[in-house]
From TrEMBL:
CDD domains to which the protein is assigned, alphabetical: Ferritin_like
Protein name, as recorded: Ferritin-like domain-containing protein
Domain of life the protein comes from: Bacteria
One Pfam family of this chain: DUF455
Coiled-coil residue windows: none
InterPro entries documented for this protein: DUF455, Ferritin-like_SF, UCP012318
């Protein structure tokens, strides 16, 4: 019996454009990997995938041109749910890309990001169900491609990917989710509250993976992690830290006390501005 190659199947899942099929392939990949029925043949060429598989809709526009609707209206509320579903869909591609692309790291790196991909598929499915419950579907609103743009910016270095995606973008999700959940609760949509609780719980683990591998790569390269992180924040997306910082969730996700103090100082300086 010829064993299938993990990287071939991961590429197929990453390039799949149909969301339901992408999730099916990801679940299948997760099960086959953990059953030990796949070979990890790194000799298969790693394609430089510039555009991950996604459906024709939603139409991608500039972040500044995404349609803004009041969440107090049925359409505006559905647009908010759609935005969350879009984040989760992109997170599937980001996790699959990490597992597929960065082949010089220990195999545990693959296992961690494959788990993330599986959980992001679960999140997307749950949010899509909530969207359908409000008579809309994924693709019915415009969206932006900022998350995948970050994958391209960090494609050449796993350290940069770990620093800027889980430790910045996903960690920002820990900051904003509680406030979103409160808005949803006030609306009386307890089913969506339950979905947000699942997402919030799992995202702590995803950020923790990012923190672990960031620290691992810094140690491997003899780099000071805090100084490097401050430098990267200046060079890249420091603006996303403006506003509330969820220190409790970040601590559980593995941020050091020094980093949390740094973020808290940033939050206070922003509020005083």
């Amino acid at each position: 019996m010829i064993m299938e190659n993990f990287y071939t199947l991961a590429q197929a899942a990453l390039c799949e454009t149909n969301p339901s099929e992408k999730c099916r392939l990801t679940f299948e990949l997760f099960e086959k990997y953990h059953s030990g029925s796949l070979k990890m043949d790194k000799s298969v060429s790693c394609e430089d995938i510039a555009v991950a598989g996604r459906p024709a809709k939603p139409e991608l526009v500039s972040p500044f041109k995404v349609e803004q609707r009041k969440p107090s209206t049925p359409e505006g509320y559905a647009a908010m749910l759609h935005a969350i579903a879009h984040i989760e869909f992109n997170a599937i591609n980001l996790a699959l890309d990490a597992a597929y692309r960065f082949r010089t790291l220990p195999e545990q790196f693959v296992a961690d990001w494959l788990q993330v991909a599986k959980e992001e598929c679960e999140h997307f499915g749950l949010m899509r169900e909530r969207l359908l419950a409000h008579s809309y579907d994924y693709g019915d609103f415009t969206a932006h491609g900022h998350l995948w743009d970050m994958a391209l910016k960090t494609a050449f270095d796993p350290l940069l990917r770990m620093a800027l995606v889980p430790r910045v973008l996903e960690a920002r999700g820990l900051d904003v989710t509680p406030a979103i959940r409160e808005k949803v609760r006030q609306r009386g949509d307890l089913e969506t509250c339950a979905v947000l609780d699942v997402i919030y719980r799992d995202e702590v683990g995803h950020v923790k993976f990012g923190n672990h591998w960031y620290q691992f790569l810094c140690e491997q390269r003899g780099l000071e992690p805090i100084a490097l992180f401050r430098q990267l924040l200046r060079q890249h997306d420091m603006f996303i830290f403006r506003g509330y910082v969820n220190l409790e969730a970040r601590e559980r996700a593995g941020f050091s006390q020094f980093e949390m103090d740094m973020l808290e100082d940033f939050e206070k300086s922003f509020q005083a501005a």
